[in-house]
Amino acid sequence: MTVPGAPRPSAAVLRAFGVGDRRPLLLPGGQGTTWRADGIVLRPHGDVREARWRSATLARLAHTDGFRTPRPVPSTDGGWLADGWEAWAWLPGATDPTRVEDVLAAGAAFHRAVAHLPRPAFLDLVDDPWSRADRLVWGPEPLPSEPLLDRLAAGFRPVRAPSQLVHRDLLGNVLFAPGEPPTVFDWAPTWRPVGFAAAVTAVDAVCWHGVPIGRLPALGQLATAPGWPQLLVRALAFRVLVLQLLGGWDDDHAARHRPLAEALLSGAAGTLDA
């Protein structure tokens, strides 16, 4: 099944990654832009600086019993990119957003493995809705005015935790396969407290996958994240702002996110200063 208007790897791109004789098949998820051809997965690479750094980093990252990642596939010219596309080794498995604790555990293992990496300069330059929202939520500039965002921003407090490279979008980007470590893929890098990644995961689980708000304190203990309630406030503001920047903020989205905002701002999920 194809998605109308979805980018499709050209014959030249398929040849560049050594699968010119294969017919690519559209994979579920990936915003309708991810394809499998034989043993590789192809997708548009986004920001060139980020894509090259991510491939070079994950090509040599040591895996553990707690996680693995797909390895990047080089093009025939020895680079990581070809005509707007990147390629990754296909690994079996399926995502399961209801396995929040398992996603957090895989994320924690991944973050331990990348904790030694320095901050890449391109993080200040990537220009997409997710990166812009991330910088706004953590930066000094005021957020765009919107009733729910205004209330969340008023609840911002300093987060006293060190930053490192983290994966900003874990919940739908961890594959589970029997007998294998979880596969962390589609790394969306940012330089934040490691608990922010867990908080975004928890916010997504509550707002989109029916996880009860009452489970948030337990998830925070699992994530061992200092300032957990405040990280949740930032994570919720981040998700709301992304939807606004994408032009998709509507009454349904507001209804999904408002109950969590009310709980956080009222202290039902913990105090903002915790």
Key terms:
single chain; alpha+beta; two-stranded antiparallel sheet; 9 helices
Which sheet architecture does the biggest sheet show?
Answer: 5 strands, antiparallel
Amount of helix: 40-55%
How many strand elements? 9
From the structure provided, what is the oligomeric state, counting identical versus distinct chains?
A: single chain
Structural class based on helices, strands and sheet pairing: alpha+beta
Question: Secondary-structure blueprint of this entry?
Answer:
Blueprint: H1 11-16, E1 25-26, E2 35-37, E3 40-44, H2 48-60, E4 81-82, E5 85-89, H3 100-114, H4 129-138, H5 147-154, E6 163-167, E7 174-175, E8 183-184, E9 189-193, H6 194-209, H7 216-223, H8 228-245, H9 251-266
Antiparallel strand pairs: 1-2, 2-3, 3-5, 4-5, 6-9, 7-8
Structure description:
With 274 residues, this protein is an alpha+beta fold. Helix content is 40%, strand content 11%. It is built from nine helices and nine strands. Helix 4 (129-138) crosses helix 8, helix 5 (147-154) runs antiparallel to helix 8 (228-245) and helix 6 (194-209) packs antiparallel against helix 7. The protein is globular. The relative contact order is 0.13.
